[in-house]
Amino acid sequence: MTNQPARPRFHLAFPVHDLESARRFYAGTMGCETGRESEHWIDFDFYGHQVVAHLSPEECGRGETNPVDGKAIPVRHFGLILDWTDWEELSERLKRAGADFLVDPHVRFQDQPGEQATMFVRDPSGNALEFKAFRDEGQIFASE
């Protein structure tokens, strides 16, 4: 196997109600490059991972949640763990774009194991995305 990335890359397909609003959000607001596309889907380079917006309006907007830190967090969500600087830059980009935050950017577990910056945002089809950054990546799976 040649040209393998340092870490495996993930592929995620998700439903959207409208491809052009998905393009505006993922390519425009998020800054993701586009790849192949058809009249039914668009590939996006999501920080080196392949995510694919599939036109499927009937699957959008499912809203099951669980409580986390006193907030209703969507059970179905995806996102990335970024380095701290990239997280701060994305947070500012999303704020400037007027993103639909479910959880505003903030730091959890400050001065504790697993200290992390986090934010949740919805795309135009209601898909929830979480972005995190850890002060110490060795603490990603810290329990106490």
From TrEMBL:
Superkingdom in the source lineage: Bacteria
Residues annotated as domain VOC: 8-134
Protein's name according to its UniProt entry: Glyoxalase
The species this protein was found in: Marinicauda pacifica
